[in-house]
Amino acid sequence: MPKVILLLFFALNFTASATAQIAVELSKMNVLYPCFENPMTVVVNNVPDSNLFLIPSIGKIRKYGRAQYYWQISTDDAGFAYLTLRDTVKNEFLGKYQFRVGVLPEPIAMFGAQHRSKKMGNGEFCAQAGIAMVWHFFDIDARCEMEKFEVVYIAKGQNLVVMENTGARFSGGVRDLINKAKPGDAYIFRRFVYQMPCFPGLRYSAQELYFTIK
User: Fold this and answer.
1) Proportion of the chain in helix, strand, coil states, percent, rounded to 5
2) 32-47: pLDDT as tens digits
3) 89: phi then psi, degrees, rounded to nearest 5
4) Under a CB-based contact definition with an 8 Å cutoff, are residues 108 and 163 in contact?
5) Which of the 8 DSSP states describes residue 102?
6) pLDDT tens by residue, 164-206
7) CA dihedral angle for residue 117, residue 123, residue 124, residue 129, rounded to 10 degrees
8) Strand 209-213 to strand 118-120: parallel, antiparallel, or no bridges (unpaired)?
9) Which among 40, 65, 155, 207 counts the fewest CB atoms within 10 Å?
10) Distance CA 158, CA 214 (A)
11) Can you tell me the distance from the alpha carbon of 185 to that of 125, in angstroms, rounded to the nearest whole number?
12) Cα–Cα dist 208/151, whole Å
């Protein structure tokens, strides 16, 4: 994803130092997303990093390199977050900037962390390790913790077999069920229960994955 540079975010008509030239850059996105460490660069001319104090209105900021910071927030209902910059040596206010806080969409259930509903050969199907809830809409490697899901096995001339799997990886009876895959069979994965990073409580998804074995 192209780097998005936002200079002097929306300024907000806040007073800033008349002498300081300030550049604020979100390295991967043009909004802040909850839970993740949003990388950003902050540069103020004539003010070394050691003198620069970043004050977030929500969440926390940590430094990881020269002029490089991570901003992590744990709420998605704030709408906006504000960043205040101060020079700690001169005790000088440098500026205040506004950022939009995005709302995380529901993660996508992916078979083997990469497949959606489709026809699949039994060899490839059996080689998959499990199901992951992932995001693909921004350039951050992020996954949820899968708690459990349900598998429905449909084979010609046989009764439906329904089993519950705990965790993301196929295990126990569900692993045996996956290994039975043969041409003409079908599998449905549904009733996903997962945990989002940094948010308390379990979440439930109505998504379903449907695979026919060829």
Assistant:
1) 10, 45, 45
2) 888 888 999 999 998 9
3) -75, -50
4) no
5) P
6) 999 999 999 999 999 999 999 999 999 999 998 777 889 999 9
7) 90
8) parallel
9) 65
10) 18
11) 11
12) 10
